[in-house]
Task: inverse folding
């Protein structure tokens, strides 16, 4: 009994522990001394990975850092200082910069999401050398306003860098696509402005940071819209391989020794030897305009593309499409065979313009370069 009573008294005593007021006081002291230091550790590492394939996770972490900076700015406002005049002015400017940073980041997030949909990952942002003491308190114990302002300014510069990187990447890719397709004789029409732009003509006003930032964001979105139009134009051209798997090119475009007559003759396409029944795919987006037989070609499928080009697939063993069907790049349209004037199962692939055959090799090679460009 004495032992149990003693045990009960010890248990009761242990529950008193550290007094809550003392505990929270200690916690407040630790928080005040380390809030800025922790922010310094968080300030730079994630932004370097902002658009390197982990967009969503890194943006979330970046938003947490912005929220932490906002807490720090609010905390600075709540402190009392002897030199109230100059410091209050600094705090007001710092709060305004913080609000601009938040708006800027919201715009960047929209642009990052749009760029991600188009397969664009901007270059990694520079890793700044931010030491452990960057946001440490001054020797008098007060937080360093200048260091906090520098941190906000740095993050604004980083988000601006992200916007610039997106625009440069989108513009460079759009220009490369236009160059490739123009070289094939395919004109590419790109929008010059964003859709839905208008309003009354008013005299200009003095710009603030927010309006200039919105103009920058609109310019980036314009670059993304142009890139999307350029990228979509790739699918309208027959530049993709119409066959995959185990195959080889067995004959090229141009004059060759005819396999039946033994004399020189013109070959109007590329031949790809493959097993009978191998699936044939549309080389680009378009509409099936012919399904049937043609002299010398055997079974044929033709697809007419938006730019007026026609891709022809011949010597087929079977059809997987009908006239009028809308097809995309990679849509199965037929099966490899050996019908018509053929020595064995293979796909004869042609590209035609104004009813004349042109070399498909230039189209397929351009397609390979464009696929590499798009990653």
Result:
């Amino acid at each position: 009994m004495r032992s149990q009573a003693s045990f009960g008294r010890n248990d009761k005593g242990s529950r008193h522990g550290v007094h809550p007021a003392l505990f929270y006081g200690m916690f407040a002291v630790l928080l005040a001394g380390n809030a800025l230091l922790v922010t310094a550790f968080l300030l730079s590492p994630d932004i370097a990975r902002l658009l390197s394939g982990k967009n969503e996770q890194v943006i979330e972490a970046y938003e947490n850092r912005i929220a932490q900076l906002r807490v720090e700015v609010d905390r600075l406002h709540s402190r009392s200082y002897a030199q109230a005049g100059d410091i209050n002015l600094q705090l007001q400017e710092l709060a305004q910069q913080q609000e601009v940073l938040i708006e800027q980041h919201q715009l960047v997030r929209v642009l990052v999401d749009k760029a991600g949909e188009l397969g664009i990952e901007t270059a990694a942002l520079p890793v700044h050398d931010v030491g452990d003491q960057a946001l440490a308190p001054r020797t008098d114990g007060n937080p360093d306003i200048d260091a906090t302002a520098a941190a906000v300014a740095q993050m604004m510069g980083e988000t601006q860098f992200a916007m610039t990187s997106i625009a440069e990447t989108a513009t460079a890719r759009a220009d490369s696509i236009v160059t490739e397709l123009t070289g094939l004789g395919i004109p590419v029409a790109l929008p010059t402005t964003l859709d839905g732009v208008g309003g009354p003509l008013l005299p200009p006003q003095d710009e603030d940071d927010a309006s200039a930032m919105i103009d920058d964001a609109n310019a980036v979105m314009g670059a993304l819209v142009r890139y999307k139009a350029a990228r979509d134009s790739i699918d309208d051209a027959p530049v993709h391989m119409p066959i995959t798997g185990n195959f080889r090119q067995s004959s090229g475009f141009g004059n060759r020794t005819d396999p039946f007559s033994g004399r020189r003759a013109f070959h109007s396409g590329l031949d790809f030897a493959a097993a009978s029944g191998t699936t044939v795919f549309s080389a680009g987006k378009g509409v099936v305009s012919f399904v049937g037989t043609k002299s010398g070609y055997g079974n044929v499928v033709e697809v007419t593309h938006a730019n007026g080009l026609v891709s022809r697939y011949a010597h087929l063993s079977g059809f997987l499409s009908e006239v009028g069907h809308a097809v995309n790049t990679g849509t199965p349209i037929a099966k490899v065979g050996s019908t018509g004037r053929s020595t064995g199962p293979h796909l004869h692939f042609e590209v035609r313009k104004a009813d004349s055959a042109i070399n498909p090799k230039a189209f397929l090679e351009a397609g390979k370069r464009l696929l590499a460009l798009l990653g």
